[in-house]
Specification:
The chain has 7 helices and no strands. By secondary structure, the chain is mainly alpha-helical. The longest helix is centred in the middle third of the chain and has 28 residues.
């Protein structure tokens, strides 16, 4: 067997370098969370994995942008803000019904509006 035969038998993925470059280009905070997410997606490979990771990056960046906007303007405990922002993203821009929504409606309804408005603002920026 010559060198060309052994090289052609090695499995290759043309998108590997693209994936590596993509991950390296991310801000560190997003990259760390993305790598944790990727460990949970071991059944995905190749281009499917790249697509899933790109979608998760968009979600993480949207989360960070909304969180920063709302956190800068309102004083809310981090766990509630974190859950509420993630819920808003998961429900396409509306904070879902539940205990956090009820608490915010009762105590500070302007935060709900701020979260949902920030979602709309940042989603439009990323279109």
């Amino acid at each position: 067997m010559d060198d060309t035969e052994s090289q052609s038998e090695k499995p290759t993925w043309s998108g590997f370098q693209e994936l590596a470059d993509f991950i390296e280009s991310l801000p560190r905070s997003v990259r760390e969370r993305l790598l944790k997410f990727a460990k949970q997606k071991q059944e995905e490979t190749g281009d499917d994995l790249l697509l899933v990771l790109r979608q998760e990056v968009r979600t993480l960046q949207l989360y960070d942008a909304i969180y920063a906007d709302v956190d800068a303007a309102h004083d809310l405990p981090n766990p509630i803000l974190s859950r509420t922002v993630r819920g808003c993203i998961d429900h396409a821009g509306r904070v879902p019904d539940g205990s956090d929504r009820d608490t915010l409606l009762r105590d500070c309804p302007q935060i709900l509006e701020a979260i949902e408005s920030a979602y709309q603002k940042h989603v439009l920026e990323h279109l």
